[in-house]
Amino acid sequence: MTPTQIAALIAAGAFVLLVVLLAIPLIKLGRTLDEATTAIRKAHENTDPLFTGANSTITHVNTQLERVDGITANAKTISGNASALSSLFTATLGGPLVKTAAFSYGVNKALRSRRKRKQEPAGKHFRTRKGGRK
């Protein structure tokens, strides 16, 4: 064998060694990609029931929100009616009721004052000042 052939054999051996050393990481990378593909496939299969459940939950929540909207609209109507009824009561009965209460208070006060005067002796109707006359 000539030195050129020996050098070619050494170069070929080194190249085979290089290919083998590079093939190991490539094989491991291929396995990793296969596992990642399997994991993605399983995740995709498991998300369908999850999305279906989420859609049904959202539909149920929307139904409940529509009911709540109806309830709040009815509550708003009731509060508006109560306010209108209160205003009507104040307008129709408030003024006369206040006048009646004031009149009855005045009559009651006048009657009390008159009863007190009847119960006092005749000379005590006039008030006296300090050091002054009756």
UniProtKB/TrEMBL annotation:
The chain crosses the membrane at residues 6-27. InterPro entries: UPF0478 (IPR009293). Residues 113-134 are annotated as: Disordered. It comes from the Bacteria. Keywords: Membrane, Transmembrane, Transmembrane helix. This is DUF948 domain-containing protein. It comes from Saccharopolyspora montiporae.
